[in-house]
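user: can you give me the structure for this one chain? tokens are fine.
assistant: on it. calling the predictor now.
[tool input]
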Amino acid sequence: MKRDLVSMLDVRDDLQNIIDLSIKLKKDSKKGKSIQRLPGKTLGMIFEKASTRTRVSFETGMTLLGGHAIYLNTNDIQLGRGESIEDTALVLSRYVDMIMFRAKKAEDVKALAQYATVPVINGLDNREHPCQIVTDLMTMQEHKGKLRGLQFVYVGDGNNNMAHSYLLGCGIVGMNARIVAPKAYQPDSYFVDAARKMGIQVEVTDNMQKGVKDADVVATDTWVSMGDEAEKAKRILEFKGYTIDEKVMGLAHSDAIFEHCLPAYYGYEVTKEVAHGPQSVIFDEAENRLWAQIGIMVTLAESRARS
């Protein structure tokens, strides 16, 4: 049996263990200890969408684990010329030990995982971004010392892959979640309902004042995700008033931290004063993409080896 990470729900039973492992391997590596847990293993990375952090962190992570990563742009492989996802999955499974897919559509990630005989990791799709949320939860735990019982607040586009995976991630670790978004950009009810069924308090509001009050963690994302560029002017107008500035952060607890998965567009979803200010942990968060993905890859690969 092989394990995939297509949705946050795929790690519902061991998310905390993955976070703890990621923190341990980070500490060990920084102390100079070898963390070569996947010697000789190869990761194939398919990119339909460009990335800085995803590509560099996965490649570096595999190197630290003693393995190797191969970058596959869809313009350079047959998938981009019409080869089926099924055939791509079956062929790559003969060459590599894991596949990471940064995709345009969630259905394609699910299909790749269905047909591949090696673990598949969702590097992002239009519905979820699980690797980023594992990273963000890891960063919260490092800075807050715990996750369960904290009040998490996400501000901005509530109907994107980040907000959706935050809801599931918060539900799994027992952190209460609040989504603050304009009414036209509130989250898909599937993710709200799934989080509530896990026993956490979930609130959805368009009121910034009430929404950010008493937050332990405040997070945001770009208002214009990849694929939404044609709506940029419209979105900027509709998100007016949802910029996280120092006044907004003042509504949260005094020891609240600020997260952003980057890239950030200063003056829109957040001011530079907040993003580079004393409450921000965005560069710790960016670094932790490396360590969280190391934890994910080790968990999936070693789980397969045991089966």
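assistant: here you go. The chain has twelve helices and nine strands. The CA atoms of residues 69 and 81 lie 23 Å apart.
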